[in-house]
Amino acid sequence: MKIFAVFILCFAFLNGCANDPKISITADQSVLNKLTRISVINFKDAPGAETGSSGSIVANAVTLELMKVPSVILVERKKLHSILEEIKLGMSGLTDEKQAIKVGKLLGANAVILGTTSQFGTSTIPIFLGLFTVYKDVYNVAADIRIVDVETGMVVFSGSNSASSTQSYEDAASKVAQGIVAKYGEAVS
Predict the structure, then answer these.
(1) What class does CATH assign to 22-188?
(2) What is the mean pLDDT of residues 164-168?
(3) How far is Cα 154 from Cα 175, in angstroms, rounded to an integer?
(4) Cα(115)–Cα(58) distance, rounded to whole angstroms?
């Protein structure tokens, strides 16, 4: 029974691992409060990521967290994709800040969120249970984001965060996004 309790404690600890996000706010409160219509652009994939969709997973997590910020109006991603088709931009070119600003303006957004997934991989940790050793995969995600004012091209908010989860990449990405977006929500409220 003690072994099972130790396993549960280790599992709970690892599942909740997240760092305090590093945040930089380069605009004053009045500028941040004006940037209410936001479009999230797909993030750059992590170099050497185990999956080619690391940027998309983190961008989706950021989008879901932004939906919880009352002052933010998200521009629909479906609308983003239709505009991309019209102007024939590839998703790889969209991570360029100047092109993202153009797309943001076309969408009617006054800010775009760009980002890079800097870590996206798994590690395996041993959990010792007396006579037994259990190995558990840990999903590690780290990302850097920038919120850019489409009128001025100025980066008004940036943040980086990392997190781990024993559940999935999506869960770790959600923890990364929660940390950064919570700080953004505090800045605009």
Answers:
(1) alpha beta
(2) 96
(3) 27
(4) 9
